[in-house]
Recover the amino acids of this structure.
C-alpha cells in the first residue's frame, strides 16, 4: 500500500469531499458515585457461560498485503488522563450544570431519632427480606398499595408511618408530599429513596443493617425452604453480597479529591457523540467503532478502567487503545477524532485488513473482536483466553453466544447434539442463490425453482425462522449414525442454546460464487424490539415440521432485545460507502457519516437497508 500522507488532517479533509469535518457538542460523564441496592436484572457485568472464539470469514473485502504498511503519522496534542477528562465547558451546547457533590443525604437526620435502628430492622425482617415462610405469607397479604390495592408497580413503604404506595403510579410520592414523609424503602430490593433528593441514597449505618438482616433471612431460607421452593426464589438472593456497597480505592479517592465537581446529564445531552476522520477508505472501521463505543456494557467496562494490561508492550495492545478511544469519545471534546493508532494496530494484528483498499465492515468487526479477545487475557485473573472453559473476558461476556446443532437420524431418530460459540449470526436473504422460504403467518406466495416469491416485505424474523428450521441433508451428505452403526440420511436444525448480551445480525448482502459477484439490495424490515424466545433450543418442540407455533414461556422477557446500532452500505460490491445509525439515550438516534454526525428519526433508521444490526438485551441476569 501507498505510504500515508504527511498531514492526516488534510488527507481526511480530502476524503470528506474537501469540506471541514463537523463537530458535535458533548459533555463529560458524571464521576463515580455510590449506587443503590441493585436488582438481579441490571445493566452491569453478568457472568454467563462462555465459549471460545474463532476467526470468521465474511463476504466482501479484498485481501491486501501480508505485511502491514506504515501507520499514519501521529497528531500533536496533549493526551488525556487515563481515567478522568476535564474539558472546560464552552458554548450553549455545554449546558451542563456544575455543582459540588454533597457528602451524603442531609435529610436522614429527621429519621435517625429514638429507636430508628429497631424500626428499620423490623421493616427489613417483615416486608423486605422475609426469611421465614410466615413472614413471606404476611408480606404477600399485607404489602399492597394503600391507594390502588395492587402488589406490583415497584411498591415502597414509608419509613415514618405504615403506608405502602406504588412508585410507578406516584402514589408513594403523593403520600410523601402531603405528609412530608420524605423517606421510603423499596420492598423488593431494600433501597432507601429520598423524595427531596429525588434519588436513592446511601447511608453506611443503614447499609450495615440491611446486609445483616439479609444474611439472617438467607440462613432462615436455607433451613426452612425445600429444594423446589429455593428454585422459585432465584430472583432475590445473589445480589446483596456481590453488589452491595461501592468501596472506592485509594486511586479513586484521589481522583474524586481533585475532581469534586459533577455534571448534570440532561435528556438532550450529546455525550459520547463524536465524529471520526476518514483516513482513506476507512469508513468500514469508523462505523464499527461507532457501534462499539455505544455498546452500553462495553462503555461501562472501559470508562470504569477495568482493563489491566499484562502485555510486554502496552503500545501494541488493542484493548489499551480501545480504552483510550472510549476516554476520547466521552471526554467532552467536539472535534472529530483521528483514529490513526487504532488503524495501525488493526493493520498489525489483522494483516489481511492492512492497506487503504476498501474492506468489509463485517470482516473488520470479527477481526476486531478476535484481537480484543486475545489481548484481554490479562483481565481474566491469569486464565488463558483460548481456554473455552475458563475465559471470562469482557468480549466473551458481551458478544459470545452458543449455537446448538441437532442432527437427527431418519431411521432410528437418534439425535447428535453439538454446541458451538458464535459472535454474530449471518442470515441469508431472498434473492440470493440460497433458497429462501419466509414463514410469516398469513404470508401468501409461491415457490418457483426452490426460491420463494412472497407478496409483502421480508422481515428479520423471517430470516431467523429460516435459519432455525430443520434442513434435510440429503443422500449425498449421509452421516454415520451411532445407533444404526451405518451411514444414514439425516436432518439438521440450528437453535440458540445461549443468547449473547449483544446480538449482532449480519444480513448477507454480498454474494460470491464462481459465476456471480453481486450485492443483494432486498429490503429487510427489522424491529426496534426483538424477542428471541421462538428461536431458543428450549422452544424447539413448539415447531412442527418447520411450522412456527408461539411457545408459552413465562421467562420470554429474558430473551428480549432492543436495537441500538445499524450499519448500512451504499453502493455496489466493487465500491461504496459505510454509514451507521446509533442510539443515544432511549429514543434519540444519530447518523454517523465519518466526521459528520446528524440527528436522525426512528423512521430513517427503520427505512434503511441494513447490513449489520446490533441488539442489546433488555434484562440481564447475574450468575
Amino acid at each position: 500500500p501507498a505510504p500515508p500522507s504527511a498531514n492526516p488532517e488534510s488527507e481526511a479533509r480530502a476524503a470528506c469531499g474537501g469540506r471541514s469535518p463537523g463537530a458535535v457538542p458533548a459533555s463529560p460523564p458524571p464521576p463515580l458515585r455510590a449506587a443503590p441496592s441493585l436488582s438481579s436484572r441490571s445493566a452491569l457485568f453478568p457472568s454467563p457461560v462462555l465459549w471460545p472464539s474463532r476467526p470468521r470469514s465474511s463476504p466482501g473485502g479484498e485481501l491486501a498485503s501480508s505485511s502491514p504498511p506504515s501507520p499514519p503519522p501521529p497528531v500533536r496534542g496533549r493526551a488525556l488522563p487515563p481515567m478522568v477528562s476535564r474539558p472546560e465547558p464552552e458554548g450553549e451546547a455545554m449546558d451542563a450544570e456544575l455543582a459540588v457533590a454533597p457528602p451524603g443525604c442531609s435529610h436522614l437526620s429527621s429519621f435517625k431519632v429514638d429507636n430508628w435502628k429497631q424500626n428499620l430492622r423490623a421493616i427489613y425482617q417483615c416486608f423486605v427480606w422475609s426469611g421465614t415462610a410466615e413472614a413471606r405469607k404476611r408480606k404477600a397479604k399485607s404489602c399492597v398499595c394503600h391507594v390502588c390495592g395492587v402488589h406490583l408497580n415497584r411498591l415502597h413503604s414509608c419509613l415514618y408511618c405504615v403506608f405502602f404506595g406504588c412508585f410507578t403510579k406516584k402514589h408513594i410520592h403523593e403520600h410523601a408530599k402531603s405528609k412530608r414523609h420524605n423517606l421510603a424503602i423499596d420492598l423488593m430490593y431494600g433501597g432507601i429513596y429520598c423524595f427531596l433528593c429525588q434519588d436513592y441514597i446511601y447511608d453506611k449505618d443503614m447499609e450495615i443493617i440491611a446486609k445483616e438482616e439479609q444474611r439472617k433471612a438467607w440462613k432462615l431460607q436455607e433451613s426452612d425452604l425445600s429444594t423446589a421452593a429455593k428454585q422459585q426464589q432465584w430472583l432475590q438472593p445473589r445480589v446483596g453480597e456481590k453488589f452491595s456497597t461501592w468501596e472506592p480505592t485509594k486511586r479513586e479517592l484521589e481522583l474524586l479529591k481533585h475532581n469534586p465537581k459533577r455534571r448534570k446529564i440532561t435528556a438532550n445531552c450529546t455525550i459520547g457523540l463524536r465524529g471520526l476522520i476518514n483516513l482513506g477508505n476507512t469508513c468500514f472501521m469508523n462505523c464499527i467503532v461507532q457501534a462499539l463505543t455505544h455498546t452500553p456494557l462495553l462503555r461501562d467496562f472501559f470508562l470504569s478502567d477495568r482493563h489491566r494490561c499484562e502485555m510486554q508492550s502496552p503500545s501494541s495492545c488493542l484493548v489499551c487503545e480501545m480504552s483510550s478511544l472510549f476516554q476520547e469519545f466521552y471526554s467532552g471534546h467536539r472535534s472529530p477524532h483521528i483514529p490513526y493508532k487504532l488503524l495501525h494496530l488493526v493493520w498489525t494484528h489483522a494483516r489481511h485488513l492492512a492497506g487503504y483498499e476498501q474492506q468489509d465492515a463485517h470482516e473488520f468487526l470479527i477481526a476486531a473482536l478476535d484481537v480484543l479477545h486475545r489481548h484481554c487475557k490479562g483481565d481474566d485473573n491469569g486464565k488463558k483466553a483460548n481456554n473455552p472453559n475458563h475465559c471470562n473476558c469482557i468480549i466473551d461476556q458481551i458478544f459470545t453466544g452458543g449455537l446448538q446443532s441437532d442432527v437427527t437420524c431418519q431411521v432410528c431418530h437418534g439425535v447428535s447434539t453439538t454446541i458451538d460459540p458464535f459472535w454474530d449470526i449471518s442470515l441469508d436473504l431472498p434473492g440470493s442463490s440460497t433458497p429462501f422460504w419466509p414463514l410469516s403467518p398469513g404470508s401468501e406466495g409461491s415457490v418457483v425453482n426452490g426460491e420463494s416469491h412472497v407478496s409483502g416485505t421480508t422481515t428479520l424474523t423471517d430470516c431467523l425462522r429460516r435459519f432455525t428450521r430443520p434442513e434435510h441433508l440429503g443422500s449425498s451428505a449421509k452421516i454415520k449414525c451411532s445407533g444404526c452403526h451405518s451411514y444414514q440420511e439425516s436432518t439438521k436444525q440450528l437453535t440458540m442454546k445461549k443468547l449473547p448480551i449483544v446480538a449482532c445480525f449480519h444480513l448477507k448482502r454480498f454474494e460470491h460464487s464462481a459465476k456471480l459477484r453481486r450485492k443483494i439490495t432486498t429490503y429487510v424490515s427489522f424491529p426496534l424490539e426483538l424477542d428471541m424466545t421462538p428461536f431458543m433450543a428450549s422452544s424447539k418442540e413448539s415447531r412442527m415440521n418447520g411450522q412456527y407455533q408461539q411457545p408459552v414461556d413465562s421467562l420470554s422477557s429474558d430473551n428480549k432485545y432492543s436495537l441500538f446500532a445499524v450499519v448500512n452500505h451504499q453502493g455496489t460490491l466493487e465500491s461504496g460507502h459505510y454509514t451507521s445509525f446509533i442510539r443515544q439515550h432511549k429514543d434519540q438516534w444519530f447518523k454517523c457519516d465519518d466526521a459528520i454526525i446528524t440527528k436522525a428519526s426512528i423512521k430513517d433508521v427503520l427505512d434503511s437497508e441494513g447490513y449489520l444490526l446490533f441488539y442489546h438485551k433488555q434484562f440481564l441476569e447475574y450468575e
In short: Residues 116-232 form a domain with the Herpes Virus-1 fold (CATH 3.30.40.10). The longest strand covers residues 560-571. Residues 88 and 577 are 35 Å apart (CA to CA).
